[in-house]
Amino acid sequence: MHHLSFMRRFTTAVAVTSAAVAIVFAGPAAAEPKPQTVDVAAAVSQLRTSVANDPGALAALDKLAAEGTVDVALPAQPFQIPATSDIGQNGGGPGVYGSGIALDIDGFRLGFFGGPGTISPNQGNAKLEVMWLNLSNGQSGTAVLSEHQDMPVDTTIRTAPLNTGAGLIVAAVYGNLWHRWPVPVSEAHPDGFAYQLGTIQQPSFGAVTR
Fold first, then answer.
1. Do 107 and 97 contact (CB within 8 A), yes or no?
2. CB neighbours (10 Å) of residue 133?
3. Distance between CA atoms of 210 and 189, rounded to whole angstroms?
4. CA gap 72, 168 in Å, rounded
């Protein structure tokens, strides 16, 4: 029941967000507000300062192609810059892997979706993390993405609720994640699943307001 309730709230959040966007863009062109934008390089520089004592986060930021600007999104929309990994979306080799996402459900959370198959229940020695910084109030932090087994289609993983405060938040998802998919039971696959570890090469970067 919990996962169905979560999905109903998730669907409602997406619907409300879509309705809000539709209202904003329904008026005449002259009345359309200018989208709020974030300079990616400047935001990454500030993120770097906020994780100065975290070598793993700094190494991830070194791999982010931080150029240009992005439009600020609302929760329930994917991050503007997707992640790449060593296995890509289909497990066949390097390429686009998936994207971070901001969720305003049961509290504000940051998550990630993508990769091949579904997310394995046992993450073993893998760890998917997100670094975030609220540009409006200066709060920052890192969090592990570990919650995912209440979704009907288990391709999304997210943090516990985060206390970021309101404002403009930038974030980057990095690390690695185990995926699995069903295969015939055999000596090599006694539990009926094949497993593959995806390691992010370029983090997924996003800017969201809440």
1. no
2. 24
3. 44
4. 8
Q: What is the value of pTM for the model shown? A: 0.82
Do 74 and 20 form a contact (C-beta atoms < 8 A)? yes
Q: 10 near 158, Cβ under 8 Å?
A: no
d(CA 110, CA 56): 18
User: Tens digits of per-residue pLDDT, 32-73?
Assistant: 567 799 999 999 999 999 999 999 999 999 999 888 999 999
Backbone φ and ψ of 17, nearest 5°: -60, -45
Phi and psi dihedrals of 199, rounded to 5?
A: -115, 125
As a whole number of angstroms, the distance between CA 185 and CA 210 comes to 46
Residues of the chain by 3-state class (helix, strand, coil), percent to 5? 20, 35, 40
